TrEMBL record:
Residues 675-686 have a biased composition (Pro residues). It holds the Pfam family PBP_dimer. NCBIfam families: pbp2_mrdA (TIGR03423). GO terms for cellular component: plasma membrane. Keywords: Carboxypeptidase, Cell inner membrane, Cell membrane, Cell shape, Cell wall biogenesis/degradation, Hydrolase, Membrane, Peptidoglycan synthesis, Protease, Transmembrane, Transmembrane helix. It is a single-pass membrane protein. It is found in: Cell membrane; Membrane. Residues 67-239 form the Penicillin-binding protein dimerisation domain. The lineage of its organism: Bacteria, Pseudomonadati, Pseudomonadota, Alphaproteobacteria, Sphingomonadales. This is Penicillin binding protein 2. Residues 648-686 are annotated as: Disordered. It comes from the Bacteria.
Length: 686
């Protein structure tokens, strides 16, 4: 077998030179391409992305911090501050920057002398807070405390001391439900708005009331501060600062002095008082008490104080003016009388009151067991005779009464800058059929005509009703001073009829009627009004036969509501008032709705005299609302400590004494004689 020999390649100097040159070209090409790529990348970085890397470099050397804008003031009609700002040194924790939370909190507790309750709050909020949301450690610090933390920042990662402004409410609890409060933005609010200002330590937004409604207007534009820092974050020097731009000032129709007086004059009661300007509907005061101190909420309310407020049977966390609904009781009788006049009933026509009337198979009573005898419209309103209205209302029917009720503001929805309102009910046959699928009955009319049954109202609507009866115009409540509004329309009642109603309302207070306690002790100033009592429980025939229990002997929640609405001066109405004392029961004359209204209105005519009287009365109530709240908080804290075994049980007596220190002895009230006494069948009152 013969093998084929491969041809031997002959290597010459020329072939070697050619091979080397080819390889060199490939390698050189690769090197050149790589060099061009590096050069291009360097050019991209140094030229095209010069600004980006300059900023990154600068950020390693310089920290940019947002300065929260100062919140705009809320002032009253005379320029007095209702909500302003005060200089504040504070310390916050940024959760995502904290390395050793326990050690950091321990060091801050020593530096700032924090109480155990505050330390517990900080730990709890730190655990629950998202990494981006600051946790407040303390505010309102002295400069020495602020400086002590600032010089130790390298050893306290995540700690953010700041100097800024905090919200302050000079009137405290008296404006709690009117203005609301501010607080740090929640995670949900941050996710919705994606605004870095919301997570800036010290920045707060409106959470309730007018603070929330006008949050956009009150929030200014943030400033900024550039500081040079070391690699560890220690401040070397401050470079530049751009000041913040404060928010706009909101000027309200509220009279600051009157607002605070109204809140204090409600004393220890649970209720509300509203005062309107009869010329244009401006709200001069809107107090709901007891209330919370918005300063506490804005600073971060403690668990203990929140627990105390939420368990209080006087419900201080509810805005009774706008969210509370109550049967209006006999305060609707002037409105019902106006409907009677419109239907053709003559004011001199009389009805015999024998103390009770039978409607169907039900016996309806008047508050005066022996009856009033023959009464006309004026006497029926002045003496609050139920029988007169029982009989007359059946003649004209509920549709006419409901129409007049709506025209004077009952059940009406007002365009107000408040996020939550309750509007009440004006019942009529169509309403009952739609809501319950039942036809209207005569006893429904009888109940409604004395402000019971399905009828419900809030204190603001009651004040509006008084203003419309006083002026004959459909005034609308307003909170912004000098706001543009259309001229109010007429309520559709003749002036002659309105004169009859106003005269009868004057007789309630000044003519021996049920509202004598509302007389104003100022020469030449006569108050016209109407008292009311709204029943909250059913009185059975058995109880009526054995003697109806007085409100003073009943538990708080079973007592009747006490009400009053009116206007002043009688002959030239300037101010209207509506007041509801929740479960007041007319057991304390001084703290009853008529006298509260009279004293509050008297402040508008003689502030000095009104304040002297109030200060005297407050000595018997345990001091101002702030003093009573502080005493209540101390007693609640002590009782909780006793429950936990932190103090001896023998201290329980001290807690009880402190809690009761603000409660004055009840002063028997004069009979106002307008309590709507239901029969043995249900009246529909709540």
């Amino acid at each position: 077998m013969k093998f084929i020999r491969s041809k031997r390649k002959i290597v010459t100097e020329a072939t070697q030179t050619f091979t080397f040159t080819r390889r060199a070209m490939v390698v050189g090409g690769l090197q050149g391409a790589f060099g061009l790529m590096l050069a291009g990348r360097m050019a991209w970085i140094s030229v095209a992305q010069n600004e980006k890397y300059n900023l990154l470099s600068e950020s390693n050397r310089v920290n940019l911090t947002l300065i929260p804008p100062r919140r705009g003031w809320i002032i009253d009609r005379n320029g007095r501050p209702l909500a302003n700002n005060r200089t504040d040194f504070r310390v916050d924790l940024i959760p995502e920057r904290v390395k050793d939370a326990d050690a950091t909190i321990r060091n801050l507790a020593e530096l700032l002398a924090l109480e155990a309750e505050e330390i517990e709050r900080i730990k709890e909020e730190l655990e629950k807070s998202p990494g981006f949301r600051p946790v407040q450690v303390a505010d309102k610090l002295s400069y020495d405390q602020y400086a002590a933390v600032s010089v130790r920042l390298p050893d306290l990662p995540g700690v953010a001391p700041s100097q800024g402004f905090s919200r302050y409410y000079p009137a405290g609890a008296s404006v709690g439900h009117l203005l609301g409060y501010v607080g740090a933005a929640s995670a949900k609010e941050y996710e919705e708005r994606k605004n870095p200002l919301l997570i800036t330590p010290g920045f707060k937004i409106g959470k309730d009331g007018l603070e929330r409604a006008f949050d956009k207007e009150l929030t200014g534009k943030p400033g900024a501060k550039r500081v040079e820092v070391t690699a560890r974050g220690k401040i070397v020097r401050e470079l530049t600062t751009r000041p913040d731009i404060p928010g706009n000032t909101i000027r309200l129709t509220i009279d600051a002095g009157l607002q605070e007086y109204a809140g204090r004059r409600l004393a220890t009661q649970s209720g509300s008082v509203v005062i309107l300007d009869c010329r244009n509907g401006d709200v001069l005061a809107m107090a709901s008490m007891p209330s919370f101190d918005p300063n506490s909420f804005s600073d971060g309310i403690s668990h203990l104080e929140w627990d105390m407020l939420s368990k209080d049977d006087h419900v201080p966390l509810r805005n009774k003016t706008l969210q509370g609904l109550y049967p209006p009781g006999s305060t609707v009788k002037p409105m019902v009388a106006l409907a009677l006049l419109e239907a053709g009933v003559h004011p001199s026509e009389t009805v015999g009151c024998a103390g009770a009337i039978r409607v169907g198979n039900t016996l309806f009573h008047c508050h005066k067991r022996r009856g009033h005898g023959a009464v006309n419209m004026r006497t029926a309103i002045a003496q609050s005779c139920d029988i007169y209205f029982y009989q007359m209302a059946q003649r004209i029917g509920m549709d006419r009464i409901a129409s007049m009720a709506r025209r004077v503001g009952m059940g009406q929805k007002f365009d107000l800058p408040f996020p939550s309102q309750s509007y009440g009910t004006v019942p009529d046959p169509a309403w009952k059929l739609k809501k319950y699928g039942q036809s209207w009955q005569v006893y429904d009319t009888v109940n409604a005509t004395i402000g019971q049954g399905y009828m419900l109202i809030n204190p603001l609507q009651m004040a509006v009703m008084a203003a419309r009866l006083a002026t004959g115009r459909q005034l609308m409540p307003n909170f912004i001073l000098d706001a543009e509004r259309p001229a109010p329309e007429s309520v559709g009642a003749s002036e002659d009829h309105l004169v009859v109603i106003r005269d009868a309302m004057s007789a309630v207070v000044n003519g021996g009627g049920t509202g004598g306690a509302a007389r104003i002790n100022i020469p030449g100033v006569l108050l016209a009004g109407k008292t009311g009592t709204a029943q909250v429980r059913r009185i059975t025939m058995a109880e009526r036969a054995g003697g109806v229990r007085g409100n003073a002997s009943l538990p708080f929640k079973l007592r009747d509501h006490a009400l009053f609405q009116g206007f002043v001066p009688f002959d030239n109405p300037r101010y209207a008032v509506g007041c509801i004392i929740e479960h007041g029961g007319h057991v304390n004359r001084i703290e009853d709705a008529p006298m509260i209204c009279a004293d509050t209105l008297s402040y508008l005519f003689d502030p000095k005299k009104a304040m002297e009287k109030l200060e005297t009365l407050e000595k018997g109530w345990g001091g101002t609302p702030a003093e009573r709240l502080a005493r209540q908080t101390a007693a609640f804290r002590l009782s909780k400590a006793i429950e936990k075994g932190e103090v001896p049980a023998s201290a329980a007596g001290n807690a009880t004494q402190a809690a009761n220190a603000a409660a004055p002895a009840a002063t028997p009230a004069e009979e106002d004689g307008d309590a709507p006494p239901p029969a043995s069948s249900p009246t529909g009152a709540p």
